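::Encoded backbone::
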Amino acid sequence: MSKSPSVSLPSDANASGRSFGTEEIAELEKVIRSGTLNCTRGTAVKAFEERFAKWLGMPACRAVPSGTAAVHAAVAAIDPEPGDEIITTPITDMGAITPILYQTAIPVFADVDPETYNVTAATIAKKITRRTKAIIVTHLFGNPCDMDPILALAAEKRLPVIEDCAQAFGCLYKGKHVGTLGTIGCFSLQQGKHMSTGEGGMVVAGDPALMRRMVLFTDKAWGYGDPNPDHYFLAPNYRMTELQGAVAVAQLGKLDRMIARRIEMAERLTAALAGVRGVAAPKLTPGGRDSYWKYPLRVDPAVIQGGADALGAKLKAAGVFCVPRYIQKPAFECQILRDRVTFGKSKFPFEGPHRADEPPIVYDRAETPGTTDALARVVVLPWNERYDPEHVDWIAGVIRTAAAELA
């Protein structure tokens, strides 16, 4: 199989797959000419926060410099005690896990549905203990978790739900934006997301007290505008710059169009792959709208000789960049968690007097069979708003040919 010389796929790593243009330049020029690059005195970040909150239908938004900072602010708002546990997914970026540790809590991993790649109410329920402080759900690849059962479980156990929507702009569950369903929603503006400022993030919450806590946390806990302001608690500086805010304002104006294009082209690929033996299109959550951050193929190794690795190698040889197995291994097998490499040699918060009466935290792949199955079978295709029918039809042809050769 050889690469077609007539097709070059757009990449979100550069201008070929991103929608930056005159609008961003105009907004940046306003900021530069103003001479104010700090959001505490500027207007761009405030405008973006107001417009993004309105886009989601939420009362307020706080912009921060990364998706990791967004998750950190959310966890800090929940305010766990040392040694508390926060349930999350083993298929996620480490940037969504380290904030748990920085706030002295311990990540506990629920298994995923191997076909949607998302945690479920059933898998979360197995991990709840008396030390559980919160649940983080990740809407992976832009496909929503099945939220009704998760929210019902959380309400029964009186646990807040943090939604990690880094990959899920425009993803809907029963007509509502993800990020507005749980207690707190977190978003990312990293280079490859649906909209981007290079790095950046946002947090939203319907509870004014939680929003105030997150606003304080992201600005050294200084009470701007309070009658007698002070630094109320331990907190970093996670302010977004006006330069990021300017790009965000312009990008938000294009967001609905960019999401619609991703969905249109993804649905075209799904239709083109119908009937291809051994390769399945993404399984959509009932009641959900997938916004396709990426396009995950599920490979049946009983049909495709060599499974996901072999199919991925064929696609890459033909010029279709892809990632077999996505993150390669569950997050809990990374060294930071496997060897408890946290604060010096303390292994805190996994060990210490705050865990004296608790069973040790054990990460065991045997407890996450869905995760193992999901990673073993997935081939993740990059996706962006610059794909057109020619790109998609060519990709479909490459997949069909590769699947036939390996069948």
Notes: The mean pLDDT is 97. The longest strand covers residues 132-138.
